[in-house]
Amino acid sequence: MHTEKVIDHIVDWLKMYAVNAKMDGFVVGISGGIDSAVTSALCAKTGIRTLCVEMPIHQAQNQVSRGREHIKLLKENFANVTNTEVNLTATFEQFKKELPQTTDDSFLDLSLANTRARLRMTTLYYFAGLHRYLVVGTGNKVEDFGVGFYTKYGDGGVDLSPIADLMKSEVYKLAKVLDIPESIVKAAPTDGLFGDSRSDEDQLGASYDELEWAMKMYEKGRNSSEFSGREQEIFNIYKKLHSANQHKMIPIPVCNIPEELL
Description:
- By secondary structure, the chain is of the alpha/beta class.
- It has two domains: 3-187, Rossmann fold (3-Layer(aba) Sandwich), CATH 3.40.50; 197-251, no CATH class.
- Helices cover 53% and strands 8% of the residues.
- Strands 3-2-1-4 form a four-stranded parallel β-sheet, sandwiched between helices.
- β2 (49-54), α3 and β3 form a beta-alpha-beta unit.
- The radius of gyration is 19 Å and the shape is globular.
């Protein structure tokens, strides 16, 4: 991959999109992870106003410190970068108090994790509306189009996605050129939505490198029976997630009314 040229291409694309949309800047949620760090750095390089927003909800301190380290470096290098923090912990806790009690908590943790992501999306769009900014997505290709590892109308609710055509490994290559802090590069990827130390790999059952391989095999039309051992396991994990999360990756189904009924 021609990393520097890819960076220039994305930066130019972001500039053109903002100008054509007649918007005044970008807003990016900062998590302390590699994807949001790379995305915000790309936005910063446009020279267009870029607002970095931290939105902790019972967040682990190491995630918070990584995000702040990254924002500090961005502000030192780009005059167009500003930041703000909205601690959503109290909002999240109040929201839970208003919900009816449930006797079936089978999906409670997942539902609340997705609620965190949707509270953050709402916050980003508040600032976007306030300043005439675009909400910039931070999802990569494996997450957005492979296994659907994001929250519908949460971190999936964005105006544009600059790194969604890049594999996770390619995002790391951009991070190296963009001088993303080593603390972020070395950190295990996590969505940070459950308030514990579980990583993306813990949730998915496979690493991003493994899922990238499976995605390429799947797109080539390969079948599970062609593999054995760990490769077969990874391929089946990918195939299962890809199928289960299609509702996130395809347009919302519309009930078309027959002409004769109108």
